[in-house]
Structure formats: C-alpha cells, structure tokens
Amino acid sequence: MTNFKDRIIRAAKLDVHLYEEVEADKGALVQAMSVVVLSSVAAGVGSIGKVGFSGILFGTITALVGWYFWAFLTYFIGTKFLPEPQTKADVGELLRTIGFSSSPGLIRVLGIIPGVGALVHFVAQVWMLVAMIIAVRQALDYTSTLRAAGVCFIGWIIQMLIFMLLFSILGGPAKPM
Question: Does any domain span residue 175?
C-alpha cells in the first residue's frame, strides 16, 4: 500500500519518472483504476451538497467509463494521427498513465468546505490537465509537450461531444463530468 500511496503523491507532484514507471508496469492497471475511482469519489464528496449521495455513484461510473474511453481515444489520436517517429504505445500504457494523472483530483474532497468548492474544483481540473499532458507525453514517447497537449485537446473535444450526445439521449447531466 505504501507503494500505491507513494505513486499517487509522485503523480500529483508531476514526477515524469513516475509516469514512465507506471507506463512500463503492466501490474499497475488496478492501481490506476483505483486512482480514478478515488478521485471521482473525492469529487462526489466535495460536491455532495449539490449532487447528493447518488451523484457519487453516478460520477464514479462515469469516470471509469470516461477513463477507458479517453485512453482509447488518446491512443488512437496519438499513434495514428499525431505520432512522432519514436511513438510506440498500447492502450494499457495509456490506461495506466492517464489513470495516475487523476491523482490531483483527490483534493476535490476539500470542496465540501463551504465557500471554497468552486476554487478547489478549478485548481484540481487545471492540475489534472497538466498531469494528463505529462502522462500522454510519456506514454506516447513524445519529445514535444505541445504535441501531447494537442492530442489531449483534440481528444477532449471529441469526448465532450460524444458524452453530450449520450447524455442528451440517455437523460443525464447536461455536460460531461
């Protein structure tokens, strides 16, 4: 468990070596999934006044589905449309690195403190975005951070559109989580 806690802290500190480590560690998939779950539960607890207890369950399921879809989408965009000559990756590597990039989202539990929820969620979102760009750069073996940011931006737009379509059809939240 100490290794897991250490990995979460290193991921939140944006430790490039951590992202390389989990990229190579095929056994880290359960840990990566656990980070996604813990981060989404922290967001649910931090927003409990707005979403209630059922929001925690819905948010966790949505986060897991979104994580898997995001990793697949990032793999596809990063290896098929925007690869660098040395790019070599598989979906598992992206699942592991992107899962750990959710580590900064654990601070969202602090959103339960009255008056700071919006600020905490904003800081967490920006921090997770930076972590995700680092995770994508490492998993896709990019030398360019800008290229990794571009892959994340393109994937975010596509995922946002798909989630908005699904939520409008299935009757969920008006915007993706």
Answer: no
